[in-house]
Amino acid sequence: MMQTPADIEAQAAIFREVFEHLRDEIGRVFVGQRSLVDHLLLCFFCQGHALIEGAPGLGKTVLVRTLGEALNLSFSRIQCTPDLMPADVTGTNLLAETPQGLREFSFRRGPIFANVVLADEINRATPRTQAAFLEALQERHVTVFGVTHLIEEPFAVFATQNPIEMEGTYPLPEAQLDRFFFKLTVQTPSVADLAEILARTTGTGAVRIAARHGAATVRAMTDVIKQVAVSPPALDRVLRIISATHPGAEEAPPIVRKYVQYGASPRAAQAMILAGKAMALLDGRYHVAAEDVAQVALPALNHRIIRNFHGEMEQVSTGAIVEGIVAATGGNG
Description:
Number of strands: 13
Strand order of the largest sheet: 2-5-8-1-9
Order of helices and strands: HHEHEHEEEHEEEHEHHEHHEHEHHEHH
Distance between the termini: 29 Å
CATH superfamily of the largest domain: P-loop containing nucleotide triphosphate hydrolases
Number of helices: 15
Strand content: 15-25%
Radius of gyration: 21 Å
CATH architecture of the largest domain: 3-Layer(aba) Sandwich
Number of domains: 2
Shape: globular
CATH topology of the largest domain: Rossmann fold
Structural class: alpha/beta
């Protein structure tokens, strides 16, 4: 059935209302950093997972938990440590006695079976346990002893890592990094934000989150995002940006040729398109413009560009490389 312009506008209005409500509710608990909150919500509604990097004590756990509370969704936290086993993430079969007195194996679900999952300090888990997340991140199910168990939608994993404490950590391999829709960075709060944090957390008042939505709303918002059209200039901008991340490409700017070893995969293009669609809806449009995809290039590419020896030695950040790529590809839609 063909949608009328009125139907399209109504859907976009609902999306903005839900998004703004969540932004406001999270803002009652998590102070400042609106861009971070917006990107977290974009990632969630686009059915993506996010890697959140920040020093201890900046509210990463609070941010993710509040998202689950505001949407009235199930939340679980996995504290990643070197002794965490894959079964501690996915679940395992247990031998139990039935009412008839028989003994049989039954599957006990692990903490990965939740709508919003926080994998705290994921780089502290061993490579074997990190691999337990891979199937869930990509396929949205887990396989235990040859049996596949589906994870109910909506489902998002928000993994955190500490950028300053490297002892006892296992860096995530590129294949796992690529499965994260966005990489987000939590900044140190400003003096004004710190004062507000202290006022909220050292008094007697307790903030209560108003949960007005649920899983059905999230699924509906995801469907709306997918229906947004992509303009030819926006698609062209994405293709040029992704191509420019590869040092051997003709479009690669000097900063990429000098400091990059490997560029972004097609998953980066998918993330930019989907996030661009959500950006367009927030702006009241039902088509993606080139500026929409340019605005989400940094979180989509930040973890997908692998620096070479010169880039690491000269400490050229991937953020600076992405900014150079966006500037070099230019153009608006």
